[in-house]
Specification:
The chain is an alpha+beta fold. It has three domains: 144 residues, no CATH class; 208 residues, Transferase(Phosphotransferase), domain 1; 31 residues, no CATH class. 34% of the residues lie in helices and 13% in strands. Helix 5 packs antiparallel against helix 7. GO terms for molecular function: ATP binding; protein kinase activity.
Length: 435
């Protein structure tokens, strides 16, 4: 049993508090992380917390290592990331500076001077249960399946501290240079989502910010991305899914394909309905299907300009985002399709440089992008079964109807009930006229 200072969480700690426009939550949390009592508590357990970049700044969102580190390029050993700790290349760069805007995560060095991230998590929540699950998984399994591992869990009252390796954010900075580099990121994201879904874990917030790359430098500002560029070119870069704020783990025996929950559920938040799956006034949604669509939207947003150079992305993205949600790929089906077409690509094709990302104008929405315009006719015919069909008149009308802000629940329920009766009324009228 550990002796020493006792910690208490004496501030509000709910997802609903994360309005970044209200700085008092950040001040309260940072005051906790920066207190000498907290520093000593973690020190007793082998972790030396980073310090605020500006001492005694309770609103600080940037932090720097408290212990010295080797100021050169360090190649990490999994699960610990590589880092570029060279002296500042400009007046604005601070080596290994960390950035965290909400005060929910602290950074530290362990007893072997390896860099970790520490998140405060409420006990007996889905996030806590998922952290416990990940901690029991072999590191090699998590490495292969691209989910950030949990290294340690430190309980405290009704909370715990979840310790993870520090990896780097901003995975499209700089832009991927070749087809192979781009596909590595896509492959790892697919593997991570498929692994979570196999274990009936709904991530709930699939977006670019919740993917990390296994290198870091100054996370707030650094114009030098040389380490990341070199690791990608050498095939050493790896990506992982993390952050389970909005996640939940359902019993393993539940069939994911038939798991539907109310759109009014407290889980219908995070990154929700990017694919307009529930823009027709639906009362329920399937979160597994939804987040496959979210990943498809991410791929479309950042890589739709690559389709002329890699036409197979057209049917692939269509099957991730199709409005025919019962025909949409599952995460495992998407991974299998991806690995099949990847295996057929030659080294010459993989080595092709990507065109510049078309940021002006901003990439068209996934549903308004003509992905098939550059697909050769013989391939379009071969992949026709994967092509997204046009929206029906009914779907277009329902989307138009339910886009109005005034049409909130319970009005949606009443309207959906009325619309469901129309076919019956119509059939009854035809029978009456024909009798």
């Amino acid at each position: 049993m550990q002796n020493g200072p006792t910690l208490r969480i004496n501030f509000s700690y709910n997802l609903d508090d994360d309005d970044l426009g209200d700085d008092r939550y950040v001040i309260e949390r940072n005051a906790f992380w920066n207190s000498q009592n907290t520093i000593d508590w973690f020190q007793k357990r082998g972790y030396t917390l980073y310090k605020p970049e500006y001492q005694d700044d309770c609103l600080s969102r940037t932090f720097v290592p408290r212990l010295p580190f080797v100021e050169d390029i360090h190649e990490g050993e999994y699960p610990y990331a590589a880092y570029d700790g060279r002296p500042a290349l400009s007046d604005e760069t601070v080596p290994l500076r960390a950035h965290e805007s909400r005060g929910k995560v602290a950074f530290a060095q362990d007893s072997r001077n390896r860099h970790v991230a520490i998140k405060l998590v409420r006990l007996k929540t889905d996030e806590h249960h998922i952290a416990e699950f990940l901690k029991t998984q072999p590191l090699e399994l998590l490495k292969e399946n691209c989910v950030l591992p949990v290294l340690d869990i430190l309980p405290i009252d009704d909370f715990c501290f979840v310790v993870m390796p520090r990896w780097g954010p901003g995975i499209i900075s700089p832009e991927h240079r070749t087809i192979k580099e781009m596909l590595q990121m896509m492959h790892d994201a697919l593997k991570g989502l498929a692994f979570l879904h196999r274990h009936n874990i709904i991530h709930g917030d699939i977006k670019l910010d919740n993917l990390l790359e296994d290198d870091f430098r100054d996370s707030f500002y650094s114009p030098d991305t040389g380490l990341r560029v070199r690791r990608r070119a050498a095939g050493h870069a790896r990506y992982a899914i993390f952050d389970f704020d909005y996640s939940r783990k359902i019993p393993q025996e539940i069939d994911r394909r038939n798991y539907w929950v109310s759109v009014q559920s407290r889980y219908a938040c995070g990154t929700f309905n990017l694919t307009k799956d529930y823009a027709q006034g639906e009362l329920e949604y399937n979160p597994f299907i939804t987040e496959v669509g979210n990943l498809g939207v991410l791929f479309s947003t950042y890589f739709q300009h690559v389709i002329p150079y890699l036409p197979v992305l057209a049917p692939f993205i269509d099957m991730l985002t199709t409005h025919k949600i019962h025909q949409r790929f599952t995460a495992s089906e998407a991974l299998e399709f991806f690995e099949n077409f990847y295996a057929d690509l030659s080294e010459e094709e993989l080595g092709k440089y990507l065109p510049a990302w078309d940021t002006a104008p901003y990439p068209r929405p996934y549903y308004d992008c003509d992905r098939w315009a550059s697909v050769p006719p013989h391939l379009a015919k071969k992949w026709a079964i994967y092509r997204e069909p046009p929206l029906s008149l009914k779907t277009r009308l329902l989307r138009k109807l339910f886009e109005h802000d005034w049409l909130y629940y319970p009005k949606v329920i009443l309207l959906r009930q009325f619309l469901a009766k129309i076919p019956k009324i119509w059939r009854a009228a035809i029978c009456l006229v024909s009798s």
